[in-house]
Write a structure and sequence with these properties.
Length: 299
């Protein structure tokens, strides 16, 4: 059971606020594997196990057999049950695909991007839900737009502010706003093209050497969600200049972990599948540069 805002583990906590970020929570907000979580009385530590379909206690409120105090599910201290790891006891809620109960798409975006950085395996553990098959592509669209609008957009807005302050006129401001829109659209197209090519080459490599258990759609799902790592480039002004290379490397690491989970292949095969296209491009650029220099020397 982890905080839905910062990911902090909430086991063995008697308060109803996350110690890390202060976000409030209730045990009933989480789904657990039945009989996998011990609900402990906050007064005497007598434990009970949830047996309903959500892994909750039934009834929710009752008198404790240990101290005869009336207790409620949401007052209890929770611990993983015997034989269960902390992460295995909780039913994973996908921050993007299960966002229907939460109206904030922005919050779902940054939670998914954060999960891609620190918990990539969990983003692709659960299988497709029929009406959510294209959710990963929508996430890629949202991530790409926000990166370019926040990352590049703030730079242009700074220039617009300076120009208007200096009396540059509305024509300049209008041109800069149009440039922001054009840059965002171009960035989205580049991101989609990159994912399409990288995903196709990686899946082809796995089909040749790795015997993947998943489909091409599963591979694209991995690449779309792992692209959330590049959200660090949305940091205003400095994101593109200081964090782009970090985001690119981290994206590949996240994609490797996701491919290993989805296709059940070794780390080496997943790594080669992800790196094969960048290596091919590096070889082509190097050969082209050598050929160009040799041509100049002949002239």
């Amino acid at each position: 059971m982890q905080c839905k805002s910062c990911g902090y583990h909430l086991w063995n906590i008697s308060s109803r606020a996350c110690p890390e970020c202060g976000e409030g929570f209730l045990p009933e907000d989480y789904d657990f594997v039945p009989n996998a979580v011990a609900f402990c009385c906050p007064h005497c530590d007598q434990n009970y196990f949830g047996t309903d379909e959500h892994g909750h206690l039934n009834p929710k409120t009752f008198e404790c057999i240990g101290c005869q105090t009336s207790i409620d599910l949401n007052e209890m201290v929770l611990r993983p049950g015997p034989g269960y790891e902390a992460d295995a006891a909780t039913v994973w809620e996908h921050p993007w695909e299960d966002r229907g109960s939460r109206p904030s798409t922005f919050r779902a975006w940054y939670r998914t991007a954060w999960a891609a950085m620190i918990r990539p395996k969990e983003l692709v553990q659960q299988g497709f839900v029929q009406n959510k098959k294209s959710g990963h592509w929508r996430f890629l669209l949202c991530n790409s737009l926000l990166i370019y609008l926040l990352g590049f957009g703030t730079i242009f807005l700074s220039l617009i502010t300076v120009a208007l302050t200096a009396g540059g006129g509305n024509t300049f401001a209008g041109g800069m706003i149009a440039a922001i829109g054009g840059m965002a659209l171009f960035g989205v197209l580049i991101n989609f093209f990159t994912v399409l090519v990288f995903g196709a080459v990686a899946h082809g490599s796995l089909r040749l050497f790795g015997k993947p258990q998943g489909t091409l759609s599963d591979t694209y799902r991995c690449y779309c969600y792992s692209n959330g790592v590049t959200a660090m480039m949305a940091v205003p002004i400095c994101g593109f200049y200081l964090l782009s290379w970090v985001g690119g490397i981290w994206w590949m690491v996240s994609a490797i972990i996701m491919l290993m989970e989805v296709h059940k292949v070794s780390g080496f095969k997943a790594t080669m599948a992800v790196l094969i296209f960048p290596i091919m491009m590096l070889v082509l650029v190097t050969v082209g540069w050598i050929a160009f220099m040799m041509q100049l020397n002949q002239v």
